[in-house]
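Bench notes, afternoon.
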Amino acid sequence: VQLQASGGGLVQAGGSLRLSCAASGRTFSSGFMGWFRQAPGKEREFVAARGWITGNTDYSDSVKGRSTVFRDNTKNTVYLQMNSLKPEDTAVYYCAAKRGPLRYVYTAWDYWGQGTQVTVSS
C-alpha cells in the first residue's frame, strides 16, 4: 500500500484546511485509514481515523468537533477536513493505514505516507 498525502499549508487561526491521502497499490478489505501529527519535540499523536469499509470514525479530543475524516470511494482517497484551526494544530501531518482493529499508537500502524506541514499562525 502506498499513501500520498497532500494539502498542508499556512493558514491563519480560525481558518480551514483539507488534507488528502491517496491510497494505491495493494489495498485491503478491512482496517483503517488515519491521520497522525507530530509537532517539534513531541511524539507522533493520533488525530483521526476512518474504517476503510465500515466508515466508522474516531477523533482525538484535541480535534473532535472541528475535524471530519471522510472517504471518496471513487478515488481511494481519504480526507481530513480541519476547521477552526488553532496555533496548537501546527505540526507535520501524516496519513497512515493499518489492518485489523483501530489502535491509537503510531507504532501499531502498518503503512505511512510522507508528512505534510500544517502551520497555523495566530
